[in-house]
Amino acid sequence: xxxxxxxxxxxxxxxxxxxxxxxxxxxxxxxxxxxxxxxxxxxxxxxxxxxxxxxxxxxxxxxxxxxxxxxxxxxxxxxxxxxxxxxxxxxxxxxxxxxxxxxxxxxxxxxxxxxxxxxxxxxxxxxxxxxxxxxxxxxxxxxxxxxxxxxxxxxxxxxxxxxxxxxxxxxxxxxxxxxxxxxxxxxxxxxxxxxxxxxxxxxxxxxxxxxxxxxxxxxxxxxxxxxxxxxxxxxxxxxxxxxxxxxxxxxxxxxxxxxxxxxxxxxxxxxxxxxxxxxxxxxxxxxxxxxxxxxxxxxxxxxxxxxxxxxxxxxxxxxxxxxxxxxxxxxxxxxxxxxxxxxxxxxxxxxxxxxxxxxxxxxxxxxxxxxxxxxxxxxxxxxxxxxxxxxxxxxxxxxxxxxxxxxxxxx
Length: 411
Hints:
The chain is mainly α. The chain has helices at residues 25-34, 47-63, 69-84, 89-99, 103-117, 122-126, 135-147, 150-207, 213-248, 250-260, 266-287, 292-300, 306-320, 325-332, 337-349, 352-372, 374-410, and strands at 3-9, 15-21, 38-44. Strands 2-1-3 form a 3-stranded antiparallel sheet, covered by helices on one side. Helix 4 runs antiparallel to helix 5.
């Protein structure tokens, strides 16, 4: 379909420019008039024009700021406030477009307005931006449009995104301290092998005295680091790139996400936080009127863990076959007996959404407790490793100095 570049005046008399896809210029003019824009100039862009326009656009998209979770939270909250105040959706989007401080989000909102102008529903327009609006987000918006409760859906989406941010922040805080200590230990090992041990090795060689086995091992390892550090750096970079490429494949992501849940101490925290996200997402979708089967499908993409998403998909397949939610949840093997009992009560009483919120809060409390006690659990392990490393280096460096001083005193 040809693309037409246009210029026109909006109802406030401001000059606006843009491009639209349509069959001919008359259709573009009708579309602009229907949105309150008075067209001034409409012309079809040629292939060269499109290429010239697309190149700066591609560069702009490359360096454009990302739309963060906070941006999406503010968008959802503001949409709820504006719709609750009785502002029409087109005017609400126009206001958000003007007030947005993120140019990328501004462009997305402008495209949403264009989609609504062309007769699309808001959910259909959002579906054109899968990197911004997830399938879960679009599904709830579509339900809100069908039930006439769009403002309530935006409020629930804001609460859900707020919860998502809180869970992610908890996971990051849980992993920050161990990652920092391990990184510092690795940096210390590199500095010692490249700077400290070679200096002592020259001192030992000047005495031509036999060195202890531990010292010889440290010297050989240090010499290997000094000689081949460029190759080691290239191999480390290649290993990181290969790992990222492997993790981006469906099979690699599944295996990595499964491994993360088995990491001592941190794995259970990630597991509980992910299941809390699942439980709250399913409760939100059910309260918004989404059927259980469709809710399980959309929530599977919310958990951000391929292994757990696969188990949730198994739940959906079981429910489609006519099995109860309790039976399918028990078959996945990812829920504790206490959670299964709560699901059983909710399924029998027809209040599964309320009970899933209780499950989410249960997991959230467990995550809070685990994060607060993470330092107490990790510190002894890190102290043992750090102490062993210091002892190894100290014995390797100072044993030969002790031997040399003993020989010098005998003389």
